[in-house]
C-alpha cells in the first residue's frame, strides 16, 4: 500500500472526507505532513481506519476493487 503526504495530494481543497469515518483528512494538530495510505484503486483513507478494514476484507470499501494478498 502506497503512502502519500497529505499536502502532496492537496486534500484541503479537493478531496471528500475519509470514506470510512467521514472525517476530514487534515486533522487538527497533525498538519499537512501526515502520510495517508492510497490503495491500488487510488482511494485514500485514514491509516487507522483502513488497516482494520483490510484485516477483515480484501476489497476497497469504496470501489470493491480486490486488494492484492500475500
Automatic annotation (TrEMBL):
It comes from Rosa chinensis (China rose). The keyword Transit peptide does not apply. This is RING-type E3 ubiquitin transferase. One of its GO terms (molecular function) is ligase activity. It catalyses: S-ubiquitinyl-[E2 ubiquitin-conjugating enzyme]-L-cysteine + [acceptor protein]-L-lysine = [E2 ubiquitin-conjugating enzyme]-L-cysteine + N(6)-ubiquitinyl-[acceptor protein]-L-lysine. Keywords: Acyltransferase, Ligase, Metal-binding, Transferase, Zinc, Zinc-finger. Its EC number is 2.3.2.27. Residues 18-64 form the RING-type domain. Pfam families: zf-RING_2. SUPFAM superfamilies: RING/U-box (SSF57850). InterPro entries: Znf_RING, Znf_RING/FYVE/PHD. It comes from the Eukaryota. One of its GO terms (biological process) is protein ubiquitination. Signal peptide: none annotated. GO terms for cellular component: cytoplasm. It is an enzyme of class 2 (transferase).
Amino acid at each position: 500500500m502506497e503512502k502519500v503526504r497529505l499536502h502532496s495530494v492537496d486534500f484541503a481543497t479537493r478531496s471528500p472526507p475519509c470514506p470510512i469515518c467521514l472525517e476530514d483528512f487534515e486533522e487538527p494538530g497533525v498538519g499537512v505532513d501526515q502520510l495517508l495510505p492510497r490503495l491500488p484503486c487510488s482511494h485514500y483513507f485514514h491509516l487507522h481506519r483502513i488497516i482494520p478494514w483490510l484485516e477483515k476484507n480484501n476489497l476497497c470499501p469504496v470501489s470493491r476493487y480486490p486488494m492484492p494478498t500475500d
